[in-house]
Design brief:
3-stranded parallel beta sheet; 15 helices; 51% helix; 4% strand; globular
Length: 347
């Protein structure tokens, strides 16, 4: 891999350190090795469900309840909307020492405010990773509709409540990327929303996380995982295999930021989910998600994806430069108005 291949600024990699134990691990050890969900407090009386101890089962349960809420609310046939809603919520980080205040605030928003809220989430991540947010366009394009369907907004509100009620932020809201990457919340949702005939026509069958975890543990060790090596997945789906490898690297005390990650999928919606997951799991600045036919391109679409990423960063820089120019001009005009509005002093 040449120096020209990587154009993103690379932060200094911190020294490998032991991952701090989660809060539940400092208490009396539970009967199983999985985390035990804390009891609900008075501030979270709206949350009735308790999360399963297995994070993969937890993700599946969230998907089932979101799908049920979407259909019961007659949200429509577009699966981009429920996927994009859950993806936006999964990009949030729960502020420390605030309990479930963020979830409480979100569920109290009226339906018509949610699209703007989701747009701000995606725009916030677009500043740092415009290439991945561009790849995820199908997940948030609906939120920019100037005349949204009221019934669809009510369905979005219902599934937002359902996802948070089932503890979505318990999986994805952690500051620790290891905790966020313990499961893939978008894979069971995507496969559950798609019709069986559609999945069969596409040949879309996501590898179970238990299998990808097993493969990663069998294949990846410190002798194999050398820094700067490329980890590629030509049929990435929502990125479950990349997640398992990243977790294995972290278990070995290695930093996923030291590796090149490339995932590609012919399905644009699956690639959009993988792009969001790349941010959630913090695979690092050298991670790229493409959408192309891996069998039809000699390099699996990597060159095309890298070019699209460079273009996305260049476009972002142009927008930021324009915004800075507008702000500077407005400040100069305001300053000029202040100076010219002062009455001249008399001798």
């Amino acid at each position: 891999m040449s120096d020209d291949d990587i154009f993103l600024p690379r932060p200094a990699a911190p020294a490998a350190a032991a991952r701090p134990a989660p809060n539940w691990a400092t208490k009396a050890p539970p009967k199983s090795k999985a985390a035990v969900r804390p009891k609900a407090t008075a501030k979270t009386t709206w949350r009735k469900a308790y999360a399963p101890r297995d994070p993969h089962e937890h993700a599946r349960k969230i998907a089932e309840n979101v799908i049920d809420a979407w259909h019961r609310s007659h949200g429509g046939s577009s699966i981009d909307v429920p996927l994009g809603t859950v993806a936006a919520l999964a990009l949030l980080r729960q502020p420390p020492n605030t309990g479930n205040g963020l979830a409480d605030w979100i569920v109290s928003r009226p339906p018509h405010e949610l699209p703007q809220f989701f747009k701000e989430i995606y725009l916030g991540h677009w500043i740092s990773r415009p290439d991945l947010i561009n790849r995820a366009l199908r997940l948030h394009d609906w939120a920019w509709n100037p005349d949204p369907d009221p019934q669809q907004l009510r369905a979005v509100h219902a599934l937002t409540h359902s996802a948070l009620n089932q503890g979505l932020l318990d999986l994805t809201g952690h500051n620790d990327p290891y905790m966020r990457a313990e499961s893939d919340v978008l894979s069971p949702l995507l496969t559950g929303l798609r019709h069986k005939s559609d999945k069969k026509w596409r040949g879309e069958y996501h590898t179970p996380p238990s299998v990808t975890d097993l493969l990663a543990n069998m294949l990846v060790d410190k002798d194999f995982a050398q820094p700067d090596m490329a980890i590629r997945e030509p049929a990435v789906g929502t990125g479950t295999m990349l997640r398992s490898v990243a977790q294995r690297l972290r278990d070995l005390g290695l930093n996923p930021h030291d590796y090149l990650w490339y995932g590609n999928d012919i399905d644009a919606l699956a690639a959009a989910c993988a792009a969001v997951n790349t941010i959630i799991w913090d695979l690092g600045p050298k991670s790229f998600i493409g959408c192309a036919d891996s069998l039809a391109l000699e390099d699996g679409g990597y060159a095309k994806t890298l070019t699209e990423a460079k273009d996305a960063f260049a476009e972002r820089d142009r927008y930021i430069d324009t915004a800075n120019t507008i702000v500077a001009t407005r400040q100069a005009v305001l300053r000029l108005d202040e100076l010219t509005s002062k009455e001249p002093s008399t001798a």
